[in-house]
User: Fold DUF2236 domain-containing protein from Actinomadura rudentiformis.
Amino acid sequence: MTDGLFRDDDMIRVVTREGLLIAAGGVASLLQTAHPKVAQGVYDHSYTAENPLRRLQNTMGWLYAVQFGTRDEAERFSALVRKGHEQITGPDYEANDPELQVWVAATLFAVGAQFYQALFRRRFSDQELAELYGQTKVYATILGCPEERMPATYADFRVYYADMVHNLRITDASRQIAHQVLNPRLPIGPLRALSAPGLAMIRLITAGMMPAPIREQYGWTWTAGRELRFRLLMGALATVYPRLPSRVRTLPREYYLMTTRRTLAKLAKQRNPVLTVTTTGRRDPGQTGTAA
Assistant:
């Protein structure tokens, strides 16, 4: 596709086309809510607990629109996100605060790069990491964050990220959100039973990839046994997943792009569409839109 924000050989597309990255979504999500202001916004406004599958669908829909959609799709969806975020405010936070946008974008870059390298047993060069970091700035800038608020270079990012990881102090809201994310409320029936192994895998990946200072604050026990199980799991995924046909590995992208395009087409017919998206957003009864 040539009419999007990126080319197919850009690092952001090379990494994010891999559907299994969704398994690392809990890491990015709970790193984001390790920031007290993000956590409070999510706790006050998000519908993650009530409808985790809808939350996942809308999060991935926005991300894939930005990464793989046309420029028009990415910009239209993101404009609706910004509009929705105007409603997400509290005594000490605003969803459109550049400070929070920078942190959210940083977690998406860091987790995506880390998981991809582990999955494909490939170490990115500094040049590749610099390219990927520069492209993932879009997660903040397309939502209105001034680019000068972002760490300018990959080297600057490393300093910023290390400082945040070692100095963030999570809150009770952070811990409650973590419980909701890792123990989602699913409908009673076959879906719940079938999802149990997948959720166990996601909990192990989330704990294993979480930076130790944040993991300790969440209160997650990390023993030698869990470390071994994590390494065995990642080794198994790295053995099997890269050998799958690319059309299988990219199925999530195709599905979420399809649902995104349907949503945008539906919203285009409405007079005043409202979309409450990304890290926060509770949809009011009767309100049309999505939230990620």
